[in-house]
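Workshop exercise sheet. Pairs work together: one partner reads the sequence aloud, the other fills in the structure field after running the prediction. Swap roles for the next sheet.
Pair: D.N. / O.F.
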Amino acid sequence: MTVNQDFDSAIREAQPVLVEAGPEHPTPENDTLPTPRLGADSLIWKFYGDIRGVLGFQRLAGTENCIEQLGQGVLDHSVIFDDFLGRARRTGPPVMRTVYSTEPAKWGRTVRDFHRDIKGTISDGSRYHALNPELFYWAHATFVDQVLYITDTFIRRLSEAEKEQIFTESKVWYELYGVSARSQPQTYAEFREYWDCMLERFVPHKTVVYATGYIRKGLPRPRRIPAPAWRVISAPLNAFIRTVVVGTLPQQMREVCTLEWDAKREKNFQRFARFMRALNPVFRRLPVRWLYVPWAAEAWEAVGVDPRPLHNKPVT
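Structure field:
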């Protein structure tokens, strides 16, 4: 079966398929197995918590919610329309701690359990459940893509061997959530095929159209800033967003969100990406607390490892 056929047949089950076996739920077969986890020797530790990941925030959130079932789940169960930044602050740290904390399984299960009651129906009347493995894996895949895309675009070029390594590490990451891996690709090549097939499923769901409204309409004016001043201040900010933020998005997402793009903007985006990669030696001189988000910086300090000298050249 193709990726799309597998997805279509499995997604309509709308049932959680959890994997409870593990150190917190021992069985005679697994009670001596250590908890899987990533560590300071992994490429995901090196790159996921890098502060430059903020450049991919719209790609991460947008690609996830361009799949109708997930967009509908956010619409039905989230406060995104009332508290967009608050939702990001509540959901981002637990995922980060699944990678960087000393209790990765605990945080992975916490992330999973946030989604136990997220279920409903989509436009064709079929049901969805956020812990259906096909949906949950797609959400995870957007984080894997973020590590791969942001690193290769804004930090430094990755070799094929490194991309394969990041994907292999992502399977350990996914295992920490305790959701069935039945739909997980097994190789990086399979992951690329899976990703491309999923892009063709994108729809202009209300959630993602709303979340990209600031791009089409411009950043909203803060109440304390007078309108004339905001017109001056916002002009370069909106130009940056419409070039750099939109530049990170897959073309399928630009189309469903009616975001303008052309050859000139693509050229400017690639120029900015090259500039960022050229600055990588400068970024590596920053203090770890500046270079990494707090949860990652704390983890590096806890293990006594300086990440800045690590993995700075592509592995062949």
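Discussion prompt: The chain is about 60% helix and 0% strand. What would you look at next?
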